[in-house]
Amino acid sequence: MFLTDEEKAMRDGAEGEAVAVAMDLLIRYGDALQAERLVDTRNVAGTMTQPSPAKRALFEEGGWAKAYAVINLDYDGELEIPRMKVPTCQLQHGFGPDAAGLTSYSPQSIELQGSAESYYSERGVNILATCTPYQVGNLPVRNEHVAWMESSAVVYCNSVLGARTNCEGGASTGAASLTGKIPYWGNHLPENRFATHLLQADVPIDTFQEWGMFGYFVGEEVQEARPAVIGEFGQPDLADLKHFGAATATSGGVELYHIPGITPEAPSLEAAFGGGIPPEPVRYGQREREWVYETLNAQGTSTDVDFVLLGCPHASLDQVARIAHLLEGRSLHEGTELWVMTPGALRTMADRNGYTRTITKAGGRVLTDSCPAMSKAAPPGTRVFATDSAKQAHYLPAILGIEAWFGTLDECIDAAVTGKWRGGLS
Amino acid sequence: MTAGGSVGAPAPLLELRGRGIVPGVVEAEALVTHDPISGFGGIDVATGTVIEPRHELFGVCFTGKVLVFPGAKGSSGWSGFFQSTRLMGTAPAAMVFNVLTTKAVLGAIVTRVPTVVEAAPDPLDRIRTGDLVRVDGDSGVITVIRSAASGTLPE
After folding, report:
1. Which of A147, A150, A161, A300 has its CA 20 to 30 A from that of A125?
2. Secondary structure of chain B in the HEC alphabet?
3. pLDDT by residue (tens digit) across A132-148?
4. Do B76 and A151 touch (CB under 8 A)?
5. Does the CA dihedral A48-B39-A213-A275 come out positive or negative?
6. Cis peptide preceding B121, ω within 30 of 0
7. Given an 8 Å threshold on Cβ–Cβ distance, is A167 in contact with B76?
8. In order of start, what are the domains of chain A with their CATH numbers?
9. Is the pLDDT of residue A206 over 90?
10. pLDDT band at B136, cuts 50/70/90?
11. B154: which residues sit within 8 A by CB, 6+ positions away?
């Protein structure tokens, strides 16, 4: 891989040992990818504070510097960790203090995460603590090269914002934070951003649920490829595309999609394919729609719902407002819990607007930082959960061994209030 | 982990040539799957087993095996999950895959096990679970030393 004089100097220690170690990792990574060079970035979204047994052991052995060296830089020696060279944020992590005591999630992990937050925020890491950094202050612009983790954020960043990132990991973002560099490979190259597959919806895609189901089908169909999608679409909003992208990155590994006329790199269908002739479309009709619905609902038999989870990926302020509106003057069924996951910054706005109060008064909770899948914990005794998120419905049964129902927000609120699942495909 | 191919070893049955991306040489039994592997929600790092319900290797342990798979899928935590298998002593002995993604490449690097990518003929067609395999991450050569079936050349 070609290195500039500046990059060679960083590798050789001109900016200190931690930067040299970071550059060494980027070189090993770039060489393995056969990247031609590195590219500058001033926007890194990674993870450092999420507790794990391996991280705890490293912390106990040598503090956070040791944990960062091994996990975020793949280096076993002693290092001092300097201030991050470029703007860096922490994505979602484990449950925070607001979830203490609600599940079997250990108080020691909450404490450990707090300690990590102090250490990393002193080094310039913004603790956004969400899978949706683009909702709370980290909004890259079109064509900006960034280094992000979190598959649902990566696909939103590439597709909806038109910024450029690969699906990075804990070590590559750790090295990017200290160097402001990432391999120029994959989605960073303009020629790798055109659509490879065409999918056509023959049923209307005009609600949050329809966008999520269609996304789940698209991901299953194209796996790691780059789809363009056409059909009878209503105008999607942020929450719809957040749900759609997360679903494509759940059943498959989509990092970039195009919706001609809506997403920025596809003013037209032809533009999505770089001027080439689009292939014959794969059709998404009533049969395919039913297949998705049945697949996401094949993980439930009991209709007694004891947990409702909303906000995957983390809810927008508008979603929180809608939930509050639906719960106005109602009370949750005894023995059924309802959680709304949202970024901390939006929780502050929800508090200010009275949404939190309405949801809490009904018996629900507005929580931040994490989700049951990330933290591997749900309310004690949960056997059956319901959600409006295709992603959470896919992951949580495997992670917690519980049953799942997937439906609309109205159906989820109904389940929370009655304790019964009465959903069905309209 | 020691280099294989000692004096007196039987002649190799088959050689597959690719590109080594993580150095080192190891000999171990192969574990082969045609399904891509997920990190988050796909493996349990404490036991080194695949936990995704619909996966071909559901419930199977990959610790100490040459993991032969198409590539990575799912969450960006892939590399972190496989790095954790290294830290917890449950990692595979080597990795062989042909679909190059940032997830799988970074994952192989931080798992620190000999890794060969883009090998031909296709490892998924030529290597069987239980074959004794040598993975040379320096030269990019994968050698089937002993067939699981009968010691004959894999079809």
Report:
1. A161
2. CCCCCCCCCCCCCEEEEEEEEECCEEEEEEEECCCCEECCCCEECCCCEECCCCCCCECCECCCCEEECCCEECCCCHHHHHHHHHHCCCCCCEEEECCCCHHHHHHHHHHCCCEEEEEECCHHHHCCCCCEEEEECCCCEEEEEECCCCCCCCC
3. 999 999 999 999 999 99
4. yes
5. positive
6. yes
7. yes
8. 5-190 (3.30.499), 195-295 (no CATH), 301-418 (3.30.499.10)
9. yes
10. very high
11. B13, B14, B126, B127, B128, B131, B144, B147
Q: What token pair was written down for A115?
A: 């300690």
CB neighbours of residue A39 within 10 Å = 17
Q: How many CA atoms lie within 13 A of A135 on its CB side?
A: 29
Beta bridge partners of B72: B37
A395 at interface of B, judged by CB pairs closer than 8 A: yes
pTM to 2 decimal places: 0.95
Length of chain A: 426
Q: CA-CA distance, A166 to A338, in Å (whole number)?
A: 34
Cis peptide bond upstream of A379, omega within 30:
no
Token readout for B152 is: 């004959």
pLDDT tens figures, B55-85? 999 999 999 999 999 999 888 999 999 999 9
Q: Rounded to the nearest 5 degrees, what angle is found at the Cα of A172, between the Cα atoms of A170 and A178? A: 105
- For A228-254, how does the pLDDT look when each residue is reduced to its tens digit (9 = 90+)? 999 999 999 999 999 999 999 999 899
The HSE-up count of residue A56 (CA atoms within 13 Å, CB side) is 11
Which positions 151-170 of A are in contact with B (Cβ < 8 Å)?
A: 151, 154, 166-170
- For residue B127, the Cα-to-chain-centroid distance in whole angstroms is 11
For an interface test with A, the pick among B22, B106, B117 (most A C-beta atoms closer than 10 Å) comes out as: B106
Q: Do B105 and A29 touch (CB under 8 A)?
A: yes
Which residue in B has a C-alpha nearest to residue A374's C-alpha?
Answer: B40
Task: Say what the pLDDT of residue A303 is.
Answer: 97
d(CA A105, CA A374) in angstroms, rounded, equals 11
C-alpha to C-alpha distance for A232 and A230, rounded to whole angstroms: 7
Q: What is the pLDDT of residue B151?
A: 52
pLDDT tens figures, A400-423: 999 999 999 999 999 999 999 999
* DSSP secondary structure code for residue A158 in this structure: I
* Cβ proximity of A150 and A371 under 8 Å: no
Reply yes or no on whether the pLDDT at B4 is more than 70: no
Q: Three-state SS for A57?
A: helix
Surface of A (176-195) touching B: CB under 8 A: 185-186
What CATH superfamily classification does B14-146 receive? Phosphohistidine domain (3.50.30.10)
- How would DSSP label each residue in A96-110? -GGGTTTSS--HHHH
Question: Is ipTM over 0.90?
Answer: yes
